[in-house]
Amino acid sequence: MKDHETVPYHLPALPAEEAIARAQSLRDRLKERRSCRYFSDEPVPREVIEAAIEAAGTAPNGANHQPWHFAVVTSPEKKRAIRLAAEEEEKRFYGEDGDKPKASDEWLDALSDLGTDADKPFLETAPYLIVVFAQRKGGIEEDGKTQNYYVNESVGIACGMLIAALHEGGCSTLTHTPSPMGFLREACERPEWEKPLMIVVVGRPSADATVPAHALKKKPLSQIASWL
Ligand code: IYR
Question: How much distance in Å is there from the Cα of 116 to the middle of ligand 1?
Answer without folding.
Answer: 7
